[in-house]
Write a structure and sequence with these properties.
23 helices, single chain, Chitinase A, domain 3
Length: about 650
Amino acid sequence: MKALFLTVILFFTSLSFSQKDAIIMKIDGKKVTKSEFLTIYLKNNATPKYDKSSLDEYMQLFTKFKLKVAEAEALGYDTIPKLNKELEGYRKQLALPYLIDSAQNQALVREAYDRSRSEVRASHILIRLDPNASSADTLAAYNRIIGLKARIDKGEDFASVAKMKNGSEDPSVINNGGDLGFFTAFQMVYPFEDKAFSTAIGEVSNPFRTKYGYHIVKVTDKRPARGTIKVAHLMISAGKEVNQEGKDAAEKKINELYQKLLAGEKWDELVALHSDDPGTSKKGGELPPFGTGTTQRMVPSFEDAAYLLKKDGDFSQPVKTDYGFHIIKRLEWSDVKPFDVVKKEIQTKVNKDERSKKTQDSFVAKLKTNYGYTNAGAKPLAWFVANLDSTYFTGSWNYINLKSNKVIFTLGKKKFMQKDFAEYLRKNYKGIKKDVPARVVELQLKNWEKSAILAYEESLLVNKYPAYKALVSEYHDGILLYEVMSDKVWNKAVKDTSGLRKFFNDNREKYLWPNRLDATIYECLNKEIASKVSSMLLNDTINSKHVIEVINKNTELNLKVKMNKFDINQTAFLKDQNLSKGLNSMYEFEGKFYVVKVAAVLPIMQKEFQEAKGASTSDYQNYLEQEWLTELRKKHPIVIYDSVLYGLGN
């Protein structure tokens, strides 16, 4: 929820603005410029209007946003360590694209595109390992993966080794023997992708590490990318929870529907009548595109059947998956797009991807040159070599005996001192293999230099790049706003049970059950079936189960039965039918025939507290927010300069 909230909040914040702009608003004396407001307004409105009514409406939203952020700052939310830590995490993510070697980055963009033109099928074995694991745990995991690879090298079957006791720790191995199917660029973490694409078919890689642990990969196939495909499906549900009788009935039903399609019956009509996928049945079964260039993936059996279809409009034979049975219809297919068309899209993915870190070493080298890096040599490091002992690897080492604070290296005008390095050592001991002090100091000095130089450059980004400064500000405001809204509105409404109940009692007339029918509804394929169902139901001893057994004896397509308390006005096939208690006359609606047996006609009635709790909680949150905003307007003075606001369109 928070990630979604922050995404929405970005629309209320600016990319950049000039300090020389006209002032459009002041809140607590702080200025908001014309260009800042206009940037936000244009981000929110694809077809902006500059009439007084439209500008006034948006200014109201903007004012509420600014009031809440101002209150969060006044209450000290920007000093809460947890929130500062969260913002720091976002800030580092936002900084990554600015801390890379652009030339090498472009090479990675090209590499990613070239890989996207093919697909690799691979199996893997995983030994899980925390990214910050101790050297002992790291060594143990490495030895385990080496041992498993040795068994495979001696001729044991990869899948058997993966599934054996103390084999792969990927939970899916029980079902797939480590087989991950086909994948392309960006569908696996970069180190895994890199190893898979650089390993020949039939070969098993040497062990390598990702954030999940140690892996070995066996590449079993490579093929050209199959492109992006859009399909529709007609689905008859038969998941793992369905018994064998239910699965047999589902298979029978899908086969009957397939025969109807072969006989020329219309796809959209059959999908609307029979598909069990509620998200697609009203739109011809259409699914989002999947395949190369998308993050959308389907189960292999579904994908394979889809790509076998040669022309738009072709449909498959019934396909079984873990979810049931499908008939797949091809709607559209496109090959991998040319590099120039997708370059920007791939660039964005590379900047967010783990592969962007690969360019940092060359970027650090360039920063050293640009900022006039100088190194003080080995002398300031001698103390560390002499004082780094076995306590370092357990996290109990300290530098209390370090009396000097000499310069280790200089970057620009900033000096990096012995105690800076000592503090880095104290905090960064996990994952460091035991070795002689001189080699540990050498390794950690290299790590620290890189970290410190990047941190130095990162500290300058706000002044060097206005877009970066604005993005950091966006996340700052979004985090504060989410927290203050949680405390003052959302969580308060949930926790204040007495206030919520009082609000409900004061507004009981709002929370009503509409006109409803407690009914059993028989949805029939045609008029003849509906007539037969009606005749059967004249006998009060016959129940819905018996009707289904008789009507669907030879086919599952004839009849569906629904039992519930139905909102008449919200149920299209019940609305305006003037139904009464008992068995009603059959009628047609949108090509289907309905027989409705009403147990009770339920009039409009008040809901009890528990029945209306969701709706009343939402209303109570809105009430609390409006009351809170009234207080904020008194607390935080706002001045809006109408002449600037209404002149935006000029």
